[in-house]
Structure formats: structure tokens, C-alpha cells
Amino acid sequence: MSVEGGLMITSERVKSLASSLGFDACGIVRIEPAAGATHAPPLPLQDEEQRFKHWIAEGRHGEMKYLEDFPSRAKRFWENFPEAKSIIVVGVNYYSGGKKQVASKRLKEGNGWRGRVARYGWGKDYHQVIGKRLGEFRDQLSELAGREIRAEICVDTKPLLERALAQKAGLGFIGKQSQLLSPKFGPWLFLAELVTDLELEPDLPFVGSCGTCRICIDECPTQAIQPEGGIDARRCIAYLTIEHKTEIPEALRPLLGERVFGCDLCLQVCPYTSKSKETHCEELKAESGFGPSLDLVEILEISSNRLHERKFEGTAILRARRKQLQRNAKIVLENLGVHERQNVGAIPATTRRRVTEDLWRHESPLQKKGTGS
Ligand code: B12
Ligand code: SF4
Ligand code: SF4
Description:
This protein is of the alpha+beta class. Helix content is 34%, strand content 12%. Bound molecules: cobalamin and iron/sulfur cluster (SF4) (2 copies).
């Protein structure tokens, strides 16, 4: 509970405000200096931070160099916010059941050469949608406190271990496939935080485990999930199709199947998916974006980075650059049997050539740095 100008702000009040703003889950983690700690973050996450460092040391993050700076960025983040007292962790259900109608309809329409998109990329970009909502949350909390509170908005990109925080905030537990599993929404919750200077009553951590289940481990097409839980990103299709900037190792290409952007298999097969329910957030629904599949021929025909940005602006798909998405589209076309199938008439000759073209062969040093095409 925070007493602000004689007013009491209880955690219950904060949670009902979160709910009125459309957040599906909300919990609180208290920031308390650990005994003898010389620097922040004073969070109850020492074990998770060690696991994270170990994961990086083993190189399981692949080309995601930005994760290597995570501890030093976290140190700076907390040093710049010494008055931080609580983290309000929120979850937004993004399960869009439009799948059955939209997915099967779209997979059949057009020229038939379509690739699958992971559910988190179906609607509008969640960073923008949730970031805006957290801004309103901060403003309303300031109104409630009668002063401008300090609250840092975090959606994905800040140096916070979001799943570990969500577990501490009581939102669910971390499954072997390394997603936070919510007892109410299954694995389909986006996570985000407001780090604030309000002193709030913390929640109890969620206690739960996968038990003897190992469905995701057995079903993962690339064996990216470790038997003890946690993933090797270098083998994960979500990583390979979105974060990996260079060529995808040849042995892994057929395993992508039809997936052109991200992968949901370990979420789909998880028994906790039975908890999923339709999202209330219109902007995250399939109908608000490209939905569950993309036209592979259209992707290969995008002739400049500018056009790529224009096409995918406002969606999470923009995280993959043109070259990456075209690389993925080529692999999926190959997996769909573009070379064997007879009905390739729907694919223009120029595009057909691009399927066999080596995207990396004529790369200039400028392009290698990812500065444009
Ligand atoms: C890097 C990253 C990725 C990477 C690496 C994924 C990974 N598993 O780490 C890649 C690109 C592969 C990826 C993929 C996806 N991601 Co991602 N990703 C992140 C990011 C930016 C950091 C994650 C991180 O710290 N990884 C580091 C390693 C060490 O984490 P870890 O192995 O899971 O270990 C942690 C815990 O699991 C725990 N732990 C580890 N071992 C053990 C063992 C035991 C016994 C226990 C108790 C705990 C435990 O401690 C560790 C430290 O926290 C977060 C956002 C954020 N800032 O947190 C989003 C985030 C995790 N991603 C998210 C999503 C939605 C996805 C995808 C579903 C997207 C898609 N469909 O393509 C996939 C799922 C793939 C998968 N099975 O993980 C969501 C997850 C939401 C949720 N409900 O959990 C997040 C939180 C983004 C968000 N703001 O909502 N992602
Ligand atoms: S997202 Fe796909 S490739 Fe990655 S761990 Fe899950 S099932 Fe395996
Ligand atoms: S499929 Fe089973 S082992 Fe994997 S995360 Fe879900 S409950 Fe855990």
C-alpha cells in the first residue's frame, strides 16, 4: 500500500484499474535491496539471473548479441531509478480464435503459396498496443496518487526477465518450453511491466510445474527444448525465422515446414492451451493485421526495404527485415515443393528465379551491417 498525499493506493485498487484498462492479469513484485547488495537490481531473481548468464555463456542465444548486454543494461536501468519500489506486472491475452475461420480461408486463397505466421504476429504490434495502454495506466495512477508518479514502461525490450518476474508476481509458472503458463489463459499472454516508485503490497509467487509432462520436448520439430527445460535458441524456429540475421543452417531448413515467421508449436501442443479464450483486445485479433499466413510470392516481390517497411508497419512482422523474410519465404516455398509441383504457373518467372537466387552472394559490406539495401 502506498500513502500519497494522505491517500492510500492499495494493490487491489491498482489491479482493478489494470482490469478496467483491459489488462487480463496483474500482479506485483516488491523491490527490496538485498542484504549487502552493492548495486541494483534488488529483485528476488538471483537464481534466474544466474541461469540467464549461464545460458549466454553457453552461446544458446545465437546471434542475439543484444542479450549479452542485458546484465550491464539492467545495472544502468536500476541505477537510474533508485526510487523504484514496485513492479506492476501485467499480462494481455492475445489468443485470437479467428484461427479456424481466417487461417483455413487465407491458407487456401490467392495462389496457394502461403506461409504460416506465429500467433503473436497476427494482429497489430503488441509493443505499440500494450505500450499505449501502459501509458494510460501510468497517467491514471498519477491521478490516483495526486502527483506525477515515476513509472517506466517495459514491453519486451527493457532489460527485465519478464517471465521470471511474472512468476514472482503470481501470474503463472514457467513451463519446460520456457513460456509463462497462466492458469487462466494458458501460454497466450503477452507480458509487460510498469516499474514504479509506488510502494505496493506484493503478491505471492505462483507455484506450479509441468510435472512429468514432456509433450513440447517430444513435439518440437528441431529438438530445441532441453530435457530439463529451457531452449537452445540456435535451434528454435522462432529465433531462426525472426532473430537470426544470416543464413539458416541447411539441416534445419526442412524443419521449418510452412513457418515463415515465428513458431507456436510448443505452445499449441501444451495441455495448458485448453485454457485459452478469445482475446478482448481488438487490435491483437487476426482481423487487425495480416492474420495467420502470408503470401510467399508477394514477400519475394517486395523490391526495397522501404516497401517492406511500408507493408508491415504497425505489425510485429516488421521485426524480420526484408532479407530475412525473403530468406524464410524461399525456404518455405522449397518445403512446399515449389520445384516438384506442376502448378507453379501462379508464380511469375522473376519470383521463381528468386527462389533459387543466393540472397547472400551479392551482399555489400553496407548491407551486412543491416543499414539498408
Ligand atoms: C530472447 C527472447 C526470445 C528468444 C529466446 C527465447 C527463450 N526461451 O529465451 C526467441 C527469439 C527464441 C523467442 C521466441 C519466442 N518468444 Co520471446 N522473448 C525473448 C525475450 C526478449 C528475453 C527472454 C530471455 O530472457 N531469455 C533468456 C533465457 C535464459 O530464458 P530461459 O531459458 O527461459 O530461462 C529463464 C526462465 O525460464 C527461468 N528458468 C530457466 N531454467 C529454469 C529451470 C527451472 C527449474 C526454473 C524454475 C526456471 C528456469 O530462468 C531464466 C531467467 O529468467 C523475452 C522478453 C523479456 N525481456 O523477457 C521475450 C518473451 C519471452 N517471448 C515471448 C514470446 C511470446 C515468444 C514466442 C512465443 C514468439 C513466437 N511464437 O515466435 C517464442 C516462443 C519460443 C520459446 N519456446 O521460448 C513472450 C513470452 C510470454 C509468455 N507468456 O511467456 C516474452 C516474455 C515477450 C513478452 N513481452 O511477452 N523469444
Ligand atoms: S517455438 Fe517451435 S522450434 Fe522453438 S522451441 Fe517451440 S516448438 Fe521448438
Ligand atoms: S507441453 Fe507439458 S512439459 Fe511442455 S510446457 Fe506444457 S505442460 Fe510443460
